[in-house]
Every structure is written in structure tokens, then in C-alpha cells.
Amino acid sequence: MRGQQPPGGVDRARLRASAAAFTSLVALAATGLVAGPAVGAPSGGPCALPRTAAHHSLGLDTWNRAYPQPVRSLDAVMIFLAFPDSTPLTTPAELAADHFPGTSDFFRSASYGRFALRPHTGTEWTTMPQDSTAYAIRRDWDAAKRTAYLRDAVAAADKKVDFSRFDVVYLVADPDAPGVDSDATKVVNLEHPIRVDGKEIKRVVTVFERHPPDRNVLAHETGHVFDLPDLYHRPMDGKGDWDTHVGDWDVMGSQFGLAPEPFGWHKWKLGWLERSQVTCVQGPGARLFSLEPLAAQPVAGGTVGNRLAVVRTGPGTVLAIEARGSTGNDRDTCTEGVLIYRVRNEAASGEGPIEVVDTHPRTEACWDRSVYPPLADAPLRVGETFTVPEDGTRVEVADRTPAGAWTVKVTVPEPSL
């Protein structure tokens, strides 16, 4: 274990005496401190980063219309591929159950019921024209071999599937075929779309998972279909830790994470958070507000409360602040509290577009369960204060109400001359 108190970092005691006063002021302080929506708007307000040319840019002032936006029901077809060199040991129904209804449930919860992923799973195998070994399937796949695989799969399935009906395509390979590599599961964006049934297929989710598969793997890959980036760090030599950027937080970091709920910034980008759920902290000084746990569902007949606070730190950067609690998709979380992370709109997928701020840099948690224990205890708890080293923004957690909302004070320093 590391030490308990980082220099200039967390101060647990100084807020306890003022917690009650902070709580009484929340309703007054939170009004008027909101940013604009992300749904097709020409501008999302001063805290909404502009979208850039980076792959899966986390700018959210406009929606990239090359991707389907998950703010309505979308239909997904799951096609099961067998090969001449192998007899499947599982059935399509068993493989479908590996992913559904779990993946649909994940997105329904994460979107607060605003998005429904409707799966259409086949009941029969579609036989590919070549042996599984002929496609040289692997994570970093030869482009020509991959193209041949995709075109063969679509052509074989087209005899029974009307692709014009579907927004998302999953190609699920027989996991026991000798040429199948489970590490090759990914979304393929096609430079030259496949045209079939009067529709252009621009991207396909290729699934090569074992049975049973990795947890939440299809939710991760489907996130790419909705223009979300990889948040993990991939070591240059393939060795070392992949989870140093965000740890357990957000399924786009790791499908094994203990807290896979999408970040509030992702929810804002996707259209699951509106203007009234985002507090924009502008200019120097202190702001006080309340944050509901990100994964908590609205009460019956109610609306989604304030879930995200944003501090603009540069032309293409922000600090994002949200509360994480053990509910919904985060029910297995290692720790609860107020999470801080940096967002960069010019960082491409896999290049650190989001980095979680470790507010307890000398400790770690849940070493037996976490994908990256140093960040498992990253959230601030009640009575703690943390000053972000790069820009001096101070985040203080004053209280947690009986209903579960967190009382937070953010102080932005005066700009240095």
C-alpha cells in the first residue's frame, strides 16, 4: 500500500465543519450554471469542446453523421459464421445468449432508457466459402485478408439477411474454429463501404470471442459504432499495463472494469444528457452544485438530474467532474465518490482522449479485482479536497445527501499573469 496523504492533495478534515452550510446552498448555487446540449446543435456552449478530425474525437459541439446516434431504437443483426474446416461445438442460440439481452440492458441503463438496441439473432450457421485458417485472423489483421473475410461473410449471409433493415451488423465466428483468434474482436471501419440490399455498410463488428466471452466486450465494441474512442493505453511492444489512462472507469477503457458506466462526457456526446444535466463552471472563483450518481436511474416519472460538471481548461481541453456510486452498471464498483478526469478533443482513439485524475496517488484499492488498482480509489470522498496540479482547480466534496447526491464545490484560480 502507498502512503495516505499526497502533498498538496487531499484534505479530509477542512470541509466537514462546513458541509451543512454547503448543502443548504446547493439549490441556489446550481441554477444558471449549465452548458448546451450535444444533439446536432451548432454550438454546445462554452464548455462543449469542438469536434476535431481526430478519430472518434471527443469534441461534442456537433454529431458526426457518419455514425448512428443512439438516441432512438436501433436494430442490430447478429450473423453466425461457420467454416468448412470445423464443426461448431456451440449453437447460435448459445452464442447469442452470451451477448443478449446483457448488451441491450447495459445501454438501456446507461442511456436512462433513451436508447434501445434491438438484436435480431439468427438461429442457423452461415457457412463461409473458405477455411477459417485461410483468412489469417488476428488482432492486427492483414487488410486484404480482412476485406476478403468481410465480403465473403456479407455475401454468404445475404441469401437470408436483408441488410437494409439493420443499423448495426455483428459477424460472430465459430469460436472453436482453428483459425479464429479471440483477440481479433473489433469494429472494422470500411474505407470502401460494402453495398448490399440497396444499403452501404460502413462498419462491421467482427466477433471472435471465446464461449463464454469476455465481460461487456460487445458493449465496448458497440460503443465504437457510436463514435466512442478506445480509452486504454496500448503499450508499444504489447507488454505492460493497458489500463493506465482510466482504469476501471468506463467500458471503453476495459470490458473487465468494475465501473463500466460510460463517462458523463460520453453520455453528453451521445445525447443521453441534456442542457439541464451539465454544470459549466466558467471563469475564476468558486461554484457550488450537486451531482447525482452517474449510473443512478431517474425515479419513476422524474427526470435525470445534474450528472456532470465541466471546467474549460484550454481551447481543446476540459476537466470533467461526476459522481460514481454502486448502482446500475456500476454496482460492482470498487469505490464511490466524485471522479475527476481530463478530456482532450484532439487526442485520437487509443491516444489518451480521457485521463482519470488520481486524487489518492499514494494508495490503491481492490488489487484482487481491479484492472488497475492505482486508479481504483481515484474518486474523492466526503470531506476530501484535491487541487489538480496542472491548472490549480480545486475540487471539494462537502456532503452526500440521504438521497445519494454529492455536494461539490469547485474553485477555479485567477489566471496567472
Kindly describe this structure.
The protein is 15% helix and 24% strand. The protein contains 7 helices and 14 strands. It has helices at 19-29, 92-99, 102-110, 143-157, 217-225, 264-270, 373-376, and strands spanning 73-82, 116-127, 168-173, 186-196, 199-207, 278-281, 285-291, 308-314, 317-324, 337-344, 354-356, 385-387, 394-400, 406-412. The protein has a 5-stranded mixed beta sheet with strand order 2-1-3-5-4. It has a 5-stranded mixed beta sheet with strand order 6-8-9-10-11, covered by helices on one side. Strands 7-14-13-12 form a 4-stranded antiparallel beta sheet, with helices on one face. Strand 13 (394-400) and strand 14 form a beta hairpin. Mean pLDDT is 89; it is low at 1-43.
